[in-house]
Amino acid sequence: MELAISVAVNGIAVGLLIGLLSFILVFLNKTTGTANFAIGNIGMFEAFIVYELFRHGMNVWVAVVLGLLASMVLGALIYQVVMRPFSKGQAANLLVRTVGLYLLFAAMADVFFGSGQPYTFPKLLPEGGISLGSAVISWSSLITVGLVLVIVALFAAMFRYTELGVQFLAVAQRASVAQLLGIRVRRLSMMAYIMAAPLALLVALLVAPSQLLSSSMMNSMLLYAFAAAVVGGFSSLGGTFVGGIIIGLVTDYVATYVGGDLSLASALVIMLLALAVRPNGLFGVPQVERL
Amino acid sequence: MRPSRRFGFARKKVQKSTSRPRRWITRGVMAVGLVALAAVASACGDGASGSSDQIVLGISVPMSGAVGSSCKPMNEGMVAWFDHVNSSGGVHGKKLKIDTRDDNYQAANSVTNTRAFIAEKAVAVTGQCGSIQPPAQMPLLEAAKIPYLFVFGSCDPCNKDSMYFNLMPDYGVQLQKEIPWVFEHKGKGSVAIMTSATPGAAAITTNVEDAVKKAGGTFVGSYSAPPGTADMTPFVLKMKSKHPDYVVLNMTPQDAAVLTKAMTAQNFAPAKALVGSSAISQASYLSNVSPSLYSKVIVSSDVAAPSAATKTDCAAALKAAKVDINSVTLRGCGTAQVVVSALKAAKQPTSAGVVEALESWQNEKASEVYPPISFTKDNHIGVSNLYIFGVKDGEFNVIGQLS
């Protein structure tokens, strides 16, 4: 029983991190119309930039702040250079562009930082934690949960109380109508990328110290995040965290009680089941088109 | 209805079709000509070992990817020694040409690299690091009769191949030998094993379980994770629930590092020792181990500890090449020394000559950092006297030796 509780605690902490990456995917999907497959690798690439700054003698926190600022610029560039040109009515084309970006960032990380990877990333969060029976809830897990809650609260406040947030919601509901009402959809899309890129870096920074920094570090995380988005509902921002927790719990329980080799497979099975039984996920709403 | 008119181009197509065979013949002749020209050009080039002034050695190694941080320094150590040999006149009056190619710890890439080495007529393929690639490379090298020298990894299925030579015993054999040693020095107890899911890992688990039972211990469980697994906490929690005296690690250094970090985060350590093979007897693993676990780390190694090799020619060559001196770079340098010794011992620096020379070695002191090496026609594993390392002042040091 104690083991089951310990696994549950870890599964929830990991699930929230998966949920955060999933949240970025759904946020971009809702505001720009395209779920960006590259978002995990964008975060990974940005984390390498932070690591390089640190490696060349910069204080790690200064490097993180500079990395966050640089990632905003990178987000804007990605939208303006890759996603925006000839984007109208090109859903499949845009999706392929994100796959291209995914491969491009992985290749660039290998070329620029790949030699000698994976690297030990400096500790950002305190070690140790709170004992709960035989399990230990690490401070880093608790801080991760806190950070995720703060980010969710900030986004909720933005959607509810700011003009920008309301415009995001309008675009998410129906972009064409929002445009007719005078909302500058492309400017909003760029804003979405400017917000998403630092969030991706944040996820990578939370993952890197407990693992190791490498060009493939976000691959499994991205798959889990997609599964979480599908389970939660690709149109529901809040649902991503529920989906993340479900995926985190299931994969951890499978790794513990069935076998580590089946952990990733279990996430994909859940995703396929969700698509077959509840195509809009737990919290998604069906897309209704007027004929 | 006349479709040809309707689509406009049909008539033209029909007219042209009469000349198609001639056009294909012309193109075919041109293609054959180009291939012939390329063949002549490559034969005239100096890339092949067939040229009289070079000995080509192929190295497919993960310079990047999941184990790049361990394998790249090993390659740097090897190249430092080969450069040193070249600057001293080479071997048999010939310079060594080292073709290093990154395989990113991917079997498919290592196969591509191996094909290139075969095309180059490499005398030997050496310097591999990892257990995923050798089973993919070996059939090609066996067919081409090119010796595959001294992988830093495990390849149980390769042991039957006539072109496969290794210095260290497989990780499974190392762990099997280590179990009685740790029981003798730390006391018998319960053992759990954690493995990276690489080829042969299941067989190693079985062998370790047998060794534990044979030595009078109890086996409490085995756990396996794919290489590069992000979250090792579930495995740690499960091991923690079994309260083992020993945890045996049969993992890549990077996976072992991630697991050890998760162990520290969960306040878990085996009661007596954390036991590993030469796969983790390196700084890239130790740098990720919490100092609170140092006293529990026991690993085997086929090469001497860096502290015992400070006055060697290898250390001097590494220093001259501005390569850090640590267990991995020393292993690289030492491996290169053995390769050079084999080339020197060969009557002719050819693949067959190298195989013949190696199979004649009995307690050959072919390197400063390896124990004496012996091969026979039936035994292609050269080192049997492994060192046992503990950790002192944050570095590996010798605490025993296996016979």
How does this model look, in words?
- The complex is a heterodimer of chains A (about 290) and B (about 400).
- Chain A has about 290 residues and is an all-alpha fold.
- Chain A is built from eleven helices and two strands; from the N terminus they run ααααββααααααα.
- Chain A has helices at about 1-30, 40-55, 60-85, 90-115, 140-160, 165-175, 175-180, 185-205, 220-230, 235-255, 265-275; strands spanning about 130, 135-140.
- Chain A has a two-stranded antiparallel ribbon with strand order 1-2.
- The radius of gyration of chain A is 19 Å and the shape is globular.
- The relative contact order of chain A is 0.19.
- Chain B is of the alpha/beta class.
- Chain B is built from 14 helices and twelve strands.
- Chain B has helices at about 5, 10-15, 20-45, 70-85, 105-120, 135-145, 170-185, 200-215, 235-240, 255-265, 285, 315-320, 325-345, 350-360, and strands at about 55-60, 95-100, 125, 150, 165, 190-195, 220-225, 245-250, 275, 295-300, 385-390, 395-400.
- A seven-stranded mixed β-sheet of chain B has the order 7-6-8-9-10-11-12, sandwiched between helices. A five-stranded parallel β-sheet of chain B has the order 2-1-3-4-5, with helices on both faces.
- The interface between A and B is large, with 41 and 36 residues.
Short structural summary:
By secondary structure, chain A is mainly alpha-helical.
Question: What attributes characterize this protein structure?
Answer:
heterodimer; A: 291 residues; mainly alpha; two-stranded antiparallel ribbon; B: 403 residues; alpha/beta; 7-stranded mixed β-sheet; 5-stranded parallel β-sheet; 14 helices; 43% helix
